[in-house]
Model the fold of this input.
Amino acid sequence: MNSTGVPRRIDHLGRIVVPVELRRMLGISPGDELEVAVKGDSVTLTKVRQGCVFCGTEDDLRSFRERLICRECTTGVSEVGPSFSAGSP
Ligand SMILES: [Zn+2]
Done:
């Protein structure tokens, strides 16, 4: 991707505002996580993809114990559950 060349001033707490055009282009919403990294003399921001802890899909997710799990893996896990409750070692 080319630089848009939009200058942004950093505030006294080290914060900057990511231009709304870039947020829309990249699908960045309030609450999303961005990974901050240094490449050479540049600082890069990369959207952290939130996916199912088992298969990685980003569709049809729900939260369980602060982790994300998709509907299909939820079904798979619930099928494993009965073997624990049956008293197996
Ligand atoms: Zn899954």
Remarks:
- Residues 52, 54-55, 57, 70, 72-73 surround zinc ion (CB under 6 Å).
- The radius of gyration is 20 Å.
- Helices lie at 20-26, 71-85.
- The chain has two domains: 7-48, 50-82.
